[in-house]
UniProtKB/TrEMBL annotation:
One biological process term in Gene Ontology: poly-hydroxybutyrate biosynthetic process
Coiled-coil intervals: none
The name this protein goes by in its record: Polyhydroxyalkanoate synthase
A single cellular component GO annotation: cytoplasm
UniProt subcellular location: Cytoplasm
Amino acid sequence: MTTPEKVESAASQQMRDNLARIETLTQRMVEAIAQKRPLNPALEGPGLDLYVSSSTALMREMTANPAKIFEAQVNYWAQAMTHYIDATHAFAQGTFKPPADPGPKDRRFSNPLWDTHPYFNFIKQQYLIASTSIEEALAKIEGLDPVDRKRLEMFSKQIIDMMAPTNFLATNPDALEKAVATEGESLVRGLENLVRDIEANRGDLVITLADKNAFSVGHNIGTAKGQVVYRNRLMELIQYTPTTPTVHKTPLIIFPPWINKFYILDLKPQNSLIRWIVDQGFTLFVVSWKNPDRSYADVGMEDYIRDGYLTAIEEVKAITGEKQVNAVGYCIAGTTLSLVLALLEKRKDRSIKTATFFTTLTDFSDQGEFTPFLQDDFVDGIERQVRMDGVLSSYYMTRTFSYLRANDLIYQPAIRSYMMGESPPAFDLLYWNGDSTNLPGKMAVEYLRGLCQADAFTTDGFDLMGELLHVSGVKVPLCAIACETDHIAPWVASFHGVAQMGSNDKTFILSESGHIAGIVNPPTKEKYGHYTSEVPIEDPQEWRAGATYTKGSWWPRWGAWLSGHSGKMVAAREPGDARHPPLAPAPGTYVAEVVVL
């Protein structure tokens, strides 16, 4: 029979065990933090404090127009005190419930206690009042340079997101409820998760977004059948096994971005674009890029074009016996594909029959959310960093992209892992997101300086391989797919680039959703629709106003367009030939490489 004494003894033992675990974990954390890598020089040093440079501009404006700041402060205090009085009045009536909460819902505050409990509701409302006041005050400031304004908006949003009450144990009802329900076990597990992440990243805190043991590339993701038929120091060329007895005569080659690994296009059979393309009767080749280490420091844009694009195209032509290929470029690989097209136009080389661009930027006149990171002080720091490491580390790129969506990619995962003590989810997309690659130092700087900062491809021309290339030199028939809520390649900026291309045969498709979900959008799910328009590709707002919405994926529409440019049907082609024997089964060897600097 269980007695109160035995229950108390068991609870005491549990407490002692937890304290012992906490002591051990704390010691491990201290040892791990001691291994922390040097800070990125892009973020510190004389003249490199981005926040100071932008806030100095704000201080100048505040000094010149103090009335605006005073007005903002008065409005904030009026709202905050009004809410305080309403809350104390409701409490004084003895009902122990908060005042009416008519504000818009925020998914961070989904726990009912945020609406029903006076303590949590008061904290939430005060936070929302403060957040709104900061945003409105910044919006009303006049005279700020557009770059300084974007920097201030970015840093202010970071502070607002960071200070959300959900990010702190004492003001997070979900975490407190779970701690009580588990008698503190959830907090100890959370500490274990925290120590695990710090140890795994040599003293840095990088949140594990997905269960790293749940997936294995080539086993349960990236499983489409094919063979590596060519390899050099920059890429592996994969030819996929046909699934139809006949295929279109013109082969198709996809150039994925080398910032991430190509299997985003082949996560699971049901959402694999690679499998879908093969099933439509296309001979498909995909480039798998090398994950570079320090020895690749001097590899530049010309190397990627010569040893990546041009070589891959020639090998595809040799294997299939065709004189032309259709090409796809995704994100940065689409930007580079447009350079290749302009180069081939200069050379009168007709190897590429048509081009498809997935979420591609060629016009960088509006740098969007990346404006704070594309100014000289920041890029100067990146140059110093790549001189040290030889590459632009995936570590820095991942952190930059994560902070653009901090609530989704930093704070919510941290809450689940460190406060709730939950294990990372078995989510293939997040697993891929954490499997990023480095960029060669020379290439990264050329891309940032010449394309992003100078916008040379749409202005004076981008100097490459002895030619001055301009976006107007892209003259093959093309199809561009942009995504409505893409924060990496905004659709309007993508549209502007396509509008300046010299092709007389342009198709533009606007998919719902963002940079990844808008592209990896299989027809079977009918999750996101897309827009097309007969309005000329000149003005994005006029095009959008005249667009027609179609429910479901854009894949079939693009497939029909591609079929019309791919020739007659011929017998299906097995991977490789006598001069291109299979080197390894898909997804190849390069995709599995992890480079730790």
